[in-house]
Amino acid sequence: MSLPELPDPIPGEPEVHPDEVTRVPLAIEDWLTVVVMALLALITFANVLVRYFTSQSFAWTEEISVFLMIVLALVAGSAAVARNRHIRIEFFADNGPEARQRALARFGAFMMFLFFAVLAVLSARVVYDDIRFGETSPGIGVPVWWYTMWMPVMSVAIAGRALGLFIRRGRRP
């Protein structure tokens, strides 16, 4: 499958690069970002209105907002890995012979996979401990595992995206 042709860039505008073709659609991260941002905006707006009209605030908004911002960071990390826009030292990654660039890209993708796979295992242990000890959140008293369960889930997603990037970088000639 070939990538769609893009029109010539407009002078002065940044060049647009199409997303690589992936087995798992990148629209998943895009839509999750939209939903999480909309929830954050709604929660914050509701809290502002309540504070303005009643001089009180919703106690639960800070706890939920922090949780949503963490989820947003993990979703954005997954999208960055899938799109190969993750942090790297471009002087080394984008210079030199093509074989070295490919080897460094594969090494970086594999190390991301390894990191997030280990993070998934360790954060799953945290979730297990939260369930086992019955930890509750300080703000609204819900089980803490409701929040912490997303760390291993998103770590597995990012590890999967990194593994996909590793495989795609190995296929290039």
TrEMBL record:
Chain's role: Part of the tripartite ATP-independent periplasmic (TRAP) transport system.
Main subcellular location: membrane
Annotated transmembrane regions: 31-52, 64-82, 103-124, 144-167
Keywords of this entry: Cell inner membrane, Cell membrane, Membrane, Transmembrane, Transmembrane helix, Transport
Membrane as UniProt keyword: yes
Subunit structure: The complex comprises the extracytoplasmic solute receptor protein and the two transmembrane proteins.
The Tripartite ATP-independent periplasmic transporters DctQ component domain, residue ranges: 40-169
Source taxon at top rank: Bacteria
Protein's UniProt name: TRAP transporter small permease protein
Chloroplast found in the keyword field: no
Family: Belongs to the TRAP transporter small permease family.
Its membrane topology: Multi-pass membrane protein
Subcellular location: Cell inner membrane
